[in-house]
Amino acid sequence: MSALIKKNKKTVSAVGVMMDVGGNGGGLAINNKQRAMLPNKSRGEFIRNQRKDSEGMSESPDLEFDYADTDKWTAELSELYSYTEGPEFTINRKCFEEDFRSHVPEKKWTELDAAQHRAHAMQLLDGLEVIRREKRLNVARAILYMAQGTFAECSCEAEVQHWVRYNIFLLLEVGTFSALVELLNMEIDNSAACSSAVRKPAISLADSTDLRVLLNIMYLIVETVQQEDSADRPEWRAIRDTFQAELGSPLYNNEPISVMLFGMVTKFSTGHAPHFPMKKVLLLLWKSILFTLGGFEQLQNIKVGKREELRLPPLPEDSIRVIRSMRAASPPASASDLIEQQQKRARREHKSLTKQDNLDAFNEKDPYKADDARDEEDDHDDNDNALETEPFPIERDDVMPPPIPHPPSERVSFPKGLPWAPKVREKDIENFLESSRSKFIGYTLGNDTNTVVGLPRPIHESIRTLKQHKYVSIAEIQILKEEEFQKTPLSGGEEDVEMSAIELLYQGILPSLPQYMYMVLLLQSPSIHLTTPGYSILLAAAPTSKAKTDSINILADVLPEEMPTTVLQSMKLGVDVNRHKEIIVKAISAVLLLLLKHFKLNHIYQFEYMAQHLVFANCIPLILKFFNQNIMSYITAKNSISVLDFPHCVVHELPELTAESLEAGDNNQFCWRNLFSCINLLRILNKLTKWKHSRTMMLVVFKSAPILKRALKVKQAMMQLYVLKLLKVQTKYLGRQWRKSNMKTMSAIYQKVRHRLNDDWAYGNDLDARPWDFQAEECALRANIERFNSRRYDKAQSNPDFLPVDNCLQSVLGQRVELPEDFQMNYDLWLEREVFSKPISWEELLQ
User: Fold this and answer.
1) CA–CA separation, 379 vs 709, rounded Å?
2) Which end of the chain, N or C, is more open, meaning fewer C-beta atoms within 10 Å of its C-beta?
3) Among 752, 745, 712, CA closest to 731
């Protein structure tokens, strides 16, 4: 072991990871004894010590990444468990076998028929109602073993997957999920466990055993049922549809289960329940929202249906297919590559007999040629080759790296020309006509977009072209309808609100939505070392008065009771901690993106309400801080141990733990979950800043351009598209010098991002983006949101002037009025003072 330590001086253990986070504000509760047992370095260097720094490479391979709602089913199942939980697989098996042998002594589970399976599942369900906590936990562990596929009786992973699916539908059929929700509510309200965890100096896996077992079963049920399989039986499909409807309905404690999970996040983040296993809660929250509301394919179908319902023209293209057909551009060249290529070119100029004009042509086409020597040091990587695809043919072999071969079908299927159809808003046409009338006629006509009298013929052609590409969004129709309801509260009638799953969820989280966004959000903290990929998740966003050293501990469900004592154990825990944080980033980014997209389709002001509170919670700078790291290293990080992943670890014999086995078995060129998280965060950033000048200026103020340009090094078309979108919206504010120095990035934006026909994004002539209007823009938006929420959801505080009035004398006098007790006691005095002592003209009163 000492030799291994000498050989790998940079080996890091879990505490290196934890002290990075805990000592500087990540809030890992580790006592001095535990800290002394652990090494001090960072484990990431050991994993990557033989890998070249990807940002120093001028050409990286295309990442064959298929963006989807989730990863493969087996990968999603394996990410539920931390490697520290490995011994619990055996404990679950023992609990099941002890109970099973007492009822069926001579047979295996896989040998029973369907009736016997159902009878035993019912018997286990009855066991969840016992009073003794230990007995109830053992029964829950037995149910968890069933949900894990009774793996001890299986010989391969495929067999485990078959029995996982069979047992999950069996448990769901007998009503296990409802019983689990009731037990989870009991654990959430368990004040004794919460107070005990608050007093503990260091929280470990043992403090959350009951919660983890329940959450594991619930996650396995949701994740398995939402995966559709063509081989499913008809009764399973019926069970799936019923479960999907129940999960999105307020059947559990009069609220959807997602609201209950949001409450767990809040309770954890405020420090009242530090033992809650946050990774499992967030994963279950993500999969519950995904299952009840639908993924990206379903979102596209809902959008098409809503446009048909509103009688709007169909979408010009299917955005999912367009993005999938795109090819990644080459990444920017590094400074060292530029210098080396310039030296090669200088040597060849002495030998070449090529004419000077050919050399000039070559320099114009050289994709690695620096655009401007006066660039800032931060922007060395801004001299990119994002658009250039073909070098000058004379120097191809010496300057350009060999091209990566692509299948011929990709080249044929890629559309010629620009991938997106241009769009024009009604407001753009109005602005164009206003400026044209002011210039040629000298007067304006307000919102009139039809009168073109007195305008030159080229303006007529321009208006015709703009109207051909006019695009009316669902959001614009919703805003117009809301304005009508606000203008005519009496004659407008009642709004017909469809009580869909997303509407029920919005109503459930509306009272505490700002708090949920603060609690769930924050991915970064100034105390985190951003140079270390994977350490940028900190689930602590509540604006409390806590010191940073007293922040919450997001690693409560990954730390063992006894900290590691050997280098190999520390390496394993270090991998586990990094993986744990990556999975939390993945879950949070997916939850936020799904909610934003579904709220935007349901009603634009629901989306704006959530988006505004994300902005108030500093979401924009936090995401930028996340990307201000070696993003290629983060995406290619290999924080996984394949031999310990479920279901491999329960079927195969585990090899002896060595440094080699920790790195073996993962030959992927990237980490799916990390690339998925990066794309989600970029999409969230796009949604927050689109058409919002004040938020776009935040991107400029926080100097996001060099950060985003470094993200272009990732050769994945979808990620590059969203980076280029973010660069496009702020280009006009970056100045002429930046645009001059980054012409190839400008070309890439032109090639890949959708065009607005009269959008002068490349020149900076926008008159609508005056700095003094920024605060007014946000305030006006907030006022519109509050009016919407008050009108639709705050029925108790409606304007009394708009309430119906009963004018019938008999019905008014016949109403029973509850009088206060002090009035009843002094009723005689009131009669004397207000009635008998005052003269009444009955003739005038009756008239």
Assistant:
1) 8
2) C
3) 745
Give CA 685 to chain center in angstroms. Answer: 10
- Give the whole-angstrom CA distance, residue 46 versus residue 343: 34
Cβ neighbours of 680 (radius 10 Å): 22
Residue 794: what pLDDT?
Answer: 84
- Euclidean distance between CA atoms 139 and 133, whole angstroms: 10
Query: Which two tokens mark 636?
Result: 């290619």
The number of beta carbons lying within 10 Å of the beta carbon of residue 212 is 23
Where is 475: in which H helix or E strand? Answer: helix 474-487
Q: Exposed/middle/buried for 548, CB within 10 Å: 0-12, 13-18, 19+?
A: middle
447 burial level (CB within 10 Å; 0-12, 13-18, 19+) = exposed
Structure confidence by residue, pLDDT tens digits, 407-420: 443 333 444 678 89
Q: Give percent of the chain above pLDDT 90.
A: 42
3-state SS class at 470: strand
C-alpha distance from residue 663 to each of 460, 642, 757, 835 (Å): 66, 8, 51, 93
Report in angstroms the alpha-carbon separations of 471 from 313, 421, 466, 570, 839: 8, 10, 10, 57, 71
Rounded CA separation 445/455 (Å): 13
Q: Where are the alpha helices (DSSP H) in 231-334?
A: 234-247, 257-269, 278-293, 296-309, 319-325
pLDDT at 520: 78
92-126 core/surface letters (b: 16 or more CB in 10 A; e: else): bbebbbebbeeeeeeeebeeeeeeebeebbeebbe
Closest among 396, 397, 342, 329 to 368, alpha carbons compared: 342
| All residues at 6 or more sequence positions from 193 whose CB lies less than 8 Å from its CB, including other chains | 187, 207, 210, 275
d(C-alpha 86, C-alpha 84), whole Å = 5
What gap in Å lies between CA 156 and CA 19, rounded to an integer? 40
Cβ-based neighbours of 5, under 8 Å, separated by 6 or more: 11, 567
Rounded to an integer, the average pLDDT of 640-663 is 83
Comparison of pLDDT for 561 and 363, the residue scoring more: 561
pLDDT of residue 481: 92
CB 622 within 8 A of CB 522: yes
Residues in the chain: 847
Helices (H) and strands (E) in the chain, counts: 43, 0
Whether residue 847 is predicted with pLDDT greater than 90 in this model: the reply is no
Q: Render pLDDT for 780-834 as a digit per residue (tens, 0 to 9).
A: 999 999 999 998 998 765 566 666 677 787 777 778 888 888 888 888 888 888 8
Where is pLDDT greater, at 92 or 813? 92
| More confident of the two residues 463 and 446 | 463
Q: Which residue has the higher pLDDT, 337 or 573?
A: 573
Reference 564, options 199, 20, 30, 27; nearest CA is 30
Structure tokens at 659: 């440094």
For the segment 522-535, the average pLDDT, to the nearest whole number, is: 35
What are 710's two structure tokens? 């470094």
What three-state secondary structure class fits 567?
helix
Per the prediction, the chain carries an average pLDDT of 79
Flag whether pLDDT at 183 surpasses 90: yes
Q: How far apart are CA 287 and CA 544, in angstroms?
A: 29
d(CA 120, CA 170) in angstroms, rounded, equals: 10
What is the structure's pLDDT at 56?
39
Q: Check if the beta carbon of residue 693 is closer than 8 Å to that of residue 615.
A: no
Q: Half-sphere exposure (CA, 13 Å, Cβ side) for 186?
A: 13
Q: Determine contact, residues 785/612, Cβ cutoff 8 Å.
A: yes
Task: Take residue 597 and report the two structure tokens written for it.
Answer: 């997209």
Contact 214, 180 (CB under 8 A): yes
d(CA 631, CA 646) in angstroms, rounded, equals 28
Sign of the Cα pseudo-torsion (345, 346, 350, 356, in order): positive
Which of 398-402, 600-604, 825-829 shows the lowest per-residue confidence on average (mean pLDDT)? 398-402
9 pLDDT more than 90: no
